[in-house]
Amino acid sequence: MTIEEQVLLKVKPTHEERELITEIVAKLFQKVNTAAKEFNIPEVEPKLVGSAARGTWISGTHDLDIFLSFPEDKSYDELEEYGLMIAREVAKDAEHVEERYAEHPYLNMQYLGFDVDVVPCFEVDCSSNIKSAVDRTPFHNEFVKERISGREDEVLLLKQFMKGTGVYGSELRTQGFSGYLTELLILNYGSFIEVINNACKWRPGTTIDLMSHGTVKHNEPLIVVDPTDPKRNVAAALSINRFAEFIDSCLSYTEEASMKYFFPDAQKPLDDTEVEEMINKRKSSFVAIVFPAPDIVDDILYPQLHKMENGIRGLLKEYEFSVLNSGTWAGENAVVLVELMSSELPNVKKHQGPPVWVGSHAIAFKSKYRESDDVFSFYVENGHYVADIKRKYPDAKELIENRIHTCALGKQLAMSMEQEFTILVDMEICSIKDDDFRIFLKNWSNIL
Amino acid sequence: MTIEEQVLLKVKPTHEERELITEIVAKLFQKVNTAAKEFNIPEVEPKLVGSAARGTWISGTHDLDIFLSFPEDKSYDELEEYGLMIAREVAKDAEHVEERYAEHPYLNMQYLGFDVDVVPCFEVDCSSNIKSAVDRTPFHNEFVKERISGREDEVLLLKQFMKGTGVYGSELRTQGFSGYLTELLILNYGSFIEVINNACKWRPGTTIDLMSHGTVKHNEPLIVVDPTDPKRNVAAALSINRFAEFIDSCLSYTEEASMKYFFPDAQKPLDDTEVEEMINKRKSSFVAIVFPAPDIVDDILYPQLHKMENGIRGLLKEYEFSVLNSGTWAGENAVVLVELMSSELPNVKKHQGPPVWVGSHAIAFKSKYRESDDVFSFYVENGHYVADIKRKYPDAKELIENRIHTCALGKQLAMSMEQEFTILVDMEICSIKDDDFRIFLKNWSNIL
Known about the structure:
Shape of chain A: elongated
CATH class of the largest domain in chain A: Alpha Beta
Oligomer: homodimer
Strand order of the largest sheet of chain A: 1-2-5-4-3
């Protein structure tokens, strides 16, 4: 049996799974129709979209996307009001219900073992005339459904390959490939293995345009023009690192295919001894900024964490610390972890002033520094005045403690940081016991 | 009494001193003439040049430059042979004689308390037609002698100001102002105080051309066109630092004149406790490369020391050490002293490879590093492969010990280094007890 056949054995939904989904969807549709009639808006039509609708879901993932399609002449307010009314009626028997927000509010519910989103949208005539971002989804759904038949297995293989290699998911935490994007890649190249082979030759700027109708220049690493909207890049969320990592995985897979790309071994968290070993081997300095993770969705949390990571890197560089690596992690607490050449700098800091001959500016510099108590020496170098002064922050921990407030921070992170934060240095990071954090630390000893 | 009058009391030669010089010079001239006749070359004429000839010597400095002027039709070989023959005859009664070399050999002798150079040269018709570098001196001598009368005191003040502020001397050790240059500055600006006032407004590129006959573009910080040679910059040897330091001293002097510019307090060498204090205050790392100073003149030694200093700075930077300051010193031993942010770096070194998508070069990089034992982690960053590898030289001392031979070194220094060298770190530099070295260390706590 080939590797791909082995993978399909694990990820292809069984006949029973398919029948169960059909049955559940029928039940949900009936509930929508009943509620719509009850509220006197029979024009509202339920639509199944997403991988369940296209037969491209990975066996065992029980996600359903039910869209409530409203006529275009309804107002945004009506859409929100009636949409949520119908959704709540549908969710009456659910085990758990939660109102969530994208551009508009929608309902998420747990129902007979399924994770169901019920999302109100407008029925528009074409994808470039949408009134709300979610209105595009039914067009994507139609486009794929009409063409994917017979190639569902290829989509499943590609999705599982991307999951296994860590590049699947277009949300802001991962910045990888969306389900729709994998389907378009299969439609474009024909099969899983052809996507892999072709991706080996991708470069930043590679463009795929199934309908040959693209109209806009995009700057993202990969451009896949939306077949339902010539202006849109379906791969806009893909970061340069996920792009490069996917190419790297494809190169390795073509050299030697293996199940491990689809189903990597489970990672074992580092224990304290292993953390100590890692730090001692590298002999660099680790500084972790730790604070309670704010209760916000990942798509808001992760961009704020990345902004904070960049802010802290910038702060450290401004004060002459050399940053080697950094990363962010979030569980109950959130962590920005920075690896430095050293968390301690000498007391002395070279402060270059203006050239001696520029007049008042030079005279002012000299009279300021030569009389300061914090000047070790004052001299001329390459024609410039230079003061060797006492460094304000020779210690990275102290710098961050005192200057973190000068970093631009996202709203919720800033609020959380104002409450409380701790800075851990080197082995002190072992006070974070969370298994997932200890797996995150493996980035510092992972080999691609 | 003004400061300037006080200075002149100390530096102006007395009547007795002048008479002594006249007497000594007459004796020497007579010896030259007698010897020339004896060797049957009566055309050779003795000339007194330099500050003694112009009345611009600092009281107490007993230097005499006697040139032996040969007719232009003599060959280089004749100049050398007869020149040295006459000089040796003149030096018969000297207390000490030494043959020295510039472009041609000459004699240096100690005679009745004077340091006398006897230098053979050609008598040429104008300064731009010289056959040997020393032939220019008689022209300089004539030019100044004809014009300086009445301003000798101004020259003395400027020379002493430059000595006191450390910028006097055009030899390669100092790279400052020559005697001829100070005389031209006085001729140009009229007086000591006018040189000081005008130098406050100097900038790199400032040009002084007494004869308005300059023909060549020069790139040095100060351009003083030689009145006897339109192509030559008399200030060519002046470094940007001596230039800037002189401007700085002039600025300070015009703000508040003081004897200390002419006669600074004698420097007290740092004792071990003070060296320790200096290092502890700065908390940087000091690394000294120490070796026996080769027995060569300063004009050869110092350029080689500076070349070595630059080579070592380059080596350290190449291996990611941050150099703060450096300097060279020579006594019995020679020292290149480097101050680093830290003499120790972490074991880990970030090694960036090519972008993932460049093909064979990327594949080669990956297969080289992912399988090496000295790789801590291998990952993708900004689309590039990056290997966090084991640093070859985490210790500056070890780096220099092992790689100093890759620095381009001057001939005599390289030979000396091959024999023996020691590397001292931090407080170990206290094993160098030399007073002058301990004064050199004061650069690290001097305030301009």
